[in-house]
User: Which sequence fits this backbone?
């Protein structure tokens, strides 16, 4: 079904593997569209309780494939048509999205990792906000997420200086959830994904929703959003299971509803 | 209660519910369906047990618009005789509060139906649009008129000419909707608001709607005169005596609708 990505579901998680390893998984418009489609599928699928985005081969994603760029094109329109739908799909998704950053994430590839909820990095991985090196600005939601993750001063340094950020530095900046040794990266990622996929998925989605409310709403409106979120969570089966398990002094078994 | 083909109706605790029921077609409105909505609304308007009417849609969308198949081959002579929009005029004569609970797509005729409501509550993620222009036509059931009265000429023209989708966040900024709520709680929150209004003195609620509607069409002077008459009229009601007595006695009023 897909040509530039591999999509598979295992143990309650949807895996989206960017699969253009010769280019370190650079974006061509087809790949953007396929990722958008895959995220939408995963959002709607009842079997999916976590989504993982990773790269085949050495890299995570090297950003826009420059061989697809010609100087007559309208860069704004490329963002509107090719990147914005993908970023919106990710932003709207209420299931947890994990970026398993196996190698370099540069340009829009960095933006893609920033849009995810968790960033698990191999110790060989690195981030690079490369846009400034070709006289462009960070795009695909980059500054929106980066300023929120590291603050405006750091975000500006990262974007204007365009220096490579190795995994350990990403961790200390708060850009990485975990850094794992490359040798057992896949095993560690799998364990993390299994853990997330076993969580009360509806509550996790509502936590994401509440975080956005905290970011975007006034305090009064935020409190209302929070009340509605808790009302919905309070009606969930996983909430009842959690309380029951607590009373019975056992581990809860969540089903994601 | 009468049964309908394209809608479902029910009422409980003073609140009537009309639900569009063609979910597989995103509640696209055909002529019979509009007739059913108007018929149900009128019968609830006359029903003494009903104080507020809620309009909503089953499935993922409120309504994606009019049934295009039904009108693709129409000609002006037939349309003039058919006079289908007369049904919509009757909807604007409903005296009781009509609250719309909207979600998903609120497009074209569906948007016009929403604009016929007195208040709109939208699920987050709801999108409004008048896509008629993309089909070489325009709204015919009040879209250009009602939208302009609410959001003003500039925004109305922008939205009607572009046919683009307006997110709920934009709609609320322009006064088109009252609240945005979580999709899961759309009906719960709407019914909560409906019941709150249903507990008020029904005559006051109806005469307020009547006077506010006049503000849309009348000059300020005529509107003020009209408001005054309604204000005086309420002093002929038992509910006015009850409301003011309860206030003085520091208790909750019990309104009877008389």
Assistant:
């Amino acid at each position: 079904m897909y040509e530039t990505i591999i999509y598979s579901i295992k143990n309650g998680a949807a895996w989206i593997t960017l699969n253009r390893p010769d280019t370190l998984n650079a974006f061509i418009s087809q790949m953007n569209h396929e990722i958008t489609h895959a995220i939408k599928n995963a959002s709607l699928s009842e079997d999916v309780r976590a989504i993982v985005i990773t790269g085949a081969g050495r890299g995570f994603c090297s950003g826009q494939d420059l061989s697809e760029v010609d100087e007559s094109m309208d860069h704004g329109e490329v963002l509107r048509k090719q990147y914005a739908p993908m970023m919106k799909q990710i932003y709207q998704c209420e299931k947890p999205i994990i970026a398993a950053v196996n190698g370099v994430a540069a340009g829009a590839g960095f933006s893609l990792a920033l849009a995810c909820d968790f960033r698990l990095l191999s110790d060989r991985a690195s981030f690079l906000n490369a846009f400034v090196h070709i006289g462009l600005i960070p795009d695909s939601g980059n500054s929106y997420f980066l300023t929120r993750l590291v603050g405006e001063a750091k975000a500006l340094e990262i974007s204007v200086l365009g220096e490579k950020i190795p995994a350990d530095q990403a961790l200390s900046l708060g850009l990485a959830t975990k850094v794992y040794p490359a040798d057992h990266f896949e095993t560690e990622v799998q364990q993390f994904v299994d853990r997330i996929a076993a969580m009360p998925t509806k509550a996790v989605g509502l936590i994401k929703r509440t975080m956005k409310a905290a970011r975007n709403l006034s305090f009064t409106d935020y409190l209302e959003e929070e009340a509605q979120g808790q009302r919905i969570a309070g009606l969930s089966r996983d909430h009842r299971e959690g309380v029951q398990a607590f009373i019975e002094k056992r581990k809860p078994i969540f089903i994601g509803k | 209660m009468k049964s309908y083909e394209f809608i479902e109706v029910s009422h409980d605790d003073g609140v009537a519910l009309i639900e569009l029921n063609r979910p597989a077609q995103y509640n696209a409105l055909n002529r019979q369906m509009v007739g059913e909505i108007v018929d149900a609304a009128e019968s609830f308007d006359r029903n003494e047990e009903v104080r507020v009417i809620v309009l909503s849609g089953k499935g993922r969308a409120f309504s994606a618009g009019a049934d295009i198949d039904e009108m693709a081959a129409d000609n002006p002579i037939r349309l003039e005789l058919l006079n289908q929009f007369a049904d919509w005029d009757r909807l604007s004569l409903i005296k009781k509060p009509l609250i719309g609970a909207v979600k998903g797509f609120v497009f074209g005729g569906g948007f016009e139906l929403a604009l016929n409501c007195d208040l709109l509550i939208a699920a987050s993620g709801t999108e409004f649009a008048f896509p008629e222009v993309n089909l070489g036509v325009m709204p015919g059931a009040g879209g250009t008129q009602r939208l302009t009265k609410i959001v003003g000429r500039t925004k109305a023209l922008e939205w009607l000419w572009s046919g683009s989708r307006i997110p709920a966040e934009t709609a609320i900024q322009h006064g088109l909707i009252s609240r945005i709520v979580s999709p899961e709680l759309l009906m719960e929150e709407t019914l909560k608001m409906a019941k709150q209004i249903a507990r008020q003195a029904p005559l006051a609620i109806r005469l307020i709607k009547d006077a506010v509607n006049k503000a849309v069409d009348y000059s300020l002077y005529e509107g003020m005169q009209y408001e005054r008459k309604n204000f005086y009229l309420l002093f002929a009601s038992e509910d006015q005596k009850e409301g003011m007595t309860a206030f003085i006695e520091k208790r909750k009023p019990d309104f009877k609708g008389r």
Observations:
- Chain A has two domains: 5-197, 201-247.
- Chain A has ten helices and nine strands.
- Residues 5-197 of chain A form a domain with the 2-enoyl-CoA Hydratase; Chain A, domain 1 fold (CATH 3.90.226.10).
